Amino acid sequence: TQLLEQSPQFLSIQEGENLTVYCNSSSVFSSLQWYRQEPGEGPVLLVTVVTGGEVKKLKRLTFQFGDARKDSSLHITAAQPGDTGLYLCAGPGNDYKLSFGAGTTVTVRA
Amino acid sequence: KAGVTQTPRYLIKTRGQQVTLSCSPISGHRSVSWYQQTPGQGLQFLFEYFSETQRNKGNFPGRFSGRQFSNSRSEMNVSTLELGDSALYLCASSLLAGGPTLQETQYFGPGTRLLVL
């Protein structure tokens, strides 16, 4: 089983501040995904990164896939209360099963 | 296009009972995956169905089972419920089955929150 470790577990910041969430593994992943889950809802896919070293931007969110494809980060610039949620990274194992990290709970205070 | 729907949204059962949860995928999607989400273990893969066949299974006991119908709707069943089965059960659908790379986007439903007393 390929494990994904996310850090930090919890993050509470003021509106307008920046934040970075990390997803690390000792295994190589062919690709990684980032999801955001809000209370009472299922996870919603934000991005899929495929190429080592790839950087993708989604408005104020920047996603990076490590060169060795073992880690990824999510950076949010000028966070807003609407960014509050549980951020999950996920990657496919050799057995095609999708593995999720434990998630980072982000709270942006107004 | 309607999203993934799950019924019921909330359920309370007692130990020893059995429960059936239902998932209706997005129209045209043929793959349905089920996940269990708990505060302690996070999101864990239960099983995936594609064209009525179980294609993959996670590390859960045989008490957890599922099936998919010809219209792609899926059900999962948990027999002899235990307190530890209390969780949010999520269903996700995609056009095609999962593979070694994430080529297919999964769309998650809102989940069924199961409480076992």
Residue share in β-strands of chain A: over 45%
Helical percentage of chain B = under 10%
- Which structural class matches the secondary elements of chain B? mainly beta
How many strands, what sense, and barrel or not for the largest sheet of chain B? Answer: 7 strands, mixed
Q: What structural category do the secondary elements of chain A indicate?
A: mainly beta
User: Radius of gyration of chain A, rounded?
Assistant: 13 Å
Sequence of secondary-structure elements of chain B? EEEEEEEEEEE
Number of helices of chain A: 0
End-to-end Cα distance of chain B, whole Å, is 37 Å
- Give the low-pLDDT segments of chain A: none
Q: Mean pLDDT score of chain B, rounded?
A: 92
> How many DSSP-defined strands of chain A?
11
* Total beta strand runs of chain B: 11
Question: What distance lies between the first and last C-alpha atoms of chain A, to the nearest angstrom?
Answer: 40 Å
Low-confidence stretches of chain B: none
Shape of chain B: globular
Give the % helix of chain A: under 10%
Oligomer: heterodimer
